């Protein structure tokens, strides 16, 4: 049977009502990591807009793992409590609440994009960052203080993901996504560009992939059996001229992530180094990576990047190139992307009763 954008997706015991997911997007709008009214309205309105999955922005598993001091976090009970009303509301709209669990590694401790994304040192509201190797991200300005992770740090970070997953479950999330993309901590372990360790977490493919496999398995172990786990990866570093992470390695990794307990691989790209060369940033620019992983491994994938049109998203699913259409920036422009897509594709979906007149249904 041909699936379409409005076919439900079953993963474990979770049924997602359609194939649209709100891509995780940092809002940099918290008080010390605690969700605010902004998150309630932002995530809530995208659930009202009909997206099958509403995923939070990168949510830091420990304070050191924030990109900026304003990132969302889940490193304490207080953080989890603040997220509860959001998951309840998202669920009440028929959407599936999801959380992206994240650690920013060497890309932590910066100001917000609208304050220039400048590195912040420990004496100006920043903190010491941790990463697989001591080389900082090549910022134009002086980078924040950084150190290479010890074996104990590696254990602590894995434990932070586990504790965060437990809290996320208690807060009512149904999907946990491990963020291993965009040059943040777990991607930094995967890529030879940022990992020159000589212990069991560096060097060979097996060693560089060890931490993401361990974190995925550890999250899977505490995440209820009936709920799905996703992992977001960067399929390529877009650095073809040097030893780096590429699509072949992603194809090799995907089944290993599935083995570790991932139900879907969310396929993004890039972010490890400013020298990256993005070959194309037009419509659906990363879809071929998702498609290649799905075709070569049979692992369920989400495609993200330049998905902005109903027809385009529908064709993505109909042609079996991906299992989920993950929509980022278009959701900033249009919280009702899914309802508009249904209207455009002539699909009958349940609208919030309060909005039926706006869609000429009463
Ligand atoms: C992002 N992106 C992103 N990715 C991620 O994995 N975690 C995050 O927290 C963020 N934060 C974020 C904030 C903002 C404002 C933007 C625009 C993007 C990347 C995003 O999820 C998506 O992968 C890209 O934007 C590409 O998809 P679109 O926007 O072309 O649909």
Automatic annotation (TrEMBL):
Keywords: Flavoprotein, FMN, NADP, Oxidoreductase. Residues 4-345 form the NADH:flavin oxidoreductase/NADH oxidase N-terminal domain. The keyword NADP applies. Its cofactor is FMN. InterPro entries: Aldolase_TIM (IPR013785), OxRdtase_FMN_N (IPR001155), YqjM-like (IPR044152). This is 2,4-dienoyl-CoA reductase. Residues 103-128 are annotated as: Disordered. GO terms for molecular function: FMN binding; NADP binding; NADPH dehydrogenase activity. Pfam families: Oxidored_FMN. It comes from Halogranum rubrum. The lineage of its organism: Archaea, Methanobacteriati, Methanobacteriota, Stenosarchaea group, Halobacteria. It comes from the Archaea. The keyword Nucleotide-binding does not apply.
